[in-house]
Amino acid sequence: MKSLDFNIGAWIGTLLQLIAWVGIVWVLVVAFQYKKDVAIEGVEVIIHNPENMIHLIEVGNFTEFVKNSLEDSIHTYTLSELPLKELYKSLNAHPYVKTAKVFVNSNGILKVECEPRYPVSRVVPARGESYYVDRYGKVMPLPMEYRPKLPVVRGRVPQANTTEEADIKDLARIGEFFTLVGKSAFLEVLVDQLVVTALKEYKVIPVMGTEKVELGEWESMQEKLWDLEDFYTEVIAQVGWGKYETISLKYEGQVVATRKTTATP
Q1: What is the pLDDT of residue 7?
Q2: Residue-range domains of the chain with CATH
Q3: Which of 25, 115, 138, 167 has its CA 20 to 30 A from that of 11?
Q4: CB–CB of 19/61 below 8 Å?
């Protein structure tokens, strides 16, 4: 008899546990369904720029871009209807964006967190529109409302819409050049313009002085820039600005400076 009572008690206990688990599962299903049906109340764009560097994303304009990436008004969507995958692809394809994350918080706010691309120079081709490039040579169209002043690249440079492999390589080198320049506070101030010749040689127009700085071909560019800085800080600092016609660093390990000639009567 005791055994029968024990079995009934155990059975009742198991049944109660089962009912409890069913209740928990039901609550989770209802909560999940409720979450899927949360209405989207708005958009919040967050730009992660911890070093406060120059970038081209304007929060108001980018918020409109997010909204315009959807077929309907954002307020007509619920979480389950929101095309998050397509939106993610669209935002990460934006030329000013390096990476973007999208998610909806518990209040129904579509949150967009972006890491921007940072422009390092403005490229001015002989034909077509000028544009910015980042440190990797990625093309960034000029924004309408904000155009930061950056070093200019002229000469034989690609157009913005190029797909040629050689042009892509040239753009990557432009981005790398200004990344190297940015490692030196002195060179960052000195280099005002970069000229690329038809022979793929590089020339610098300094912000001060009248000397023509010839860097030659791309090889050993880092070392050439180090030598250029040394020449300015050790030689130009002694003799003064405007004393040289050209400063050539075409050949690795050599700095050949040609003094200006004075006209004789």
Answers
A1: 60
A2: 42-116 (3.10.20), 119-259 (3.40.50.11690)
A3: 25
A4: no
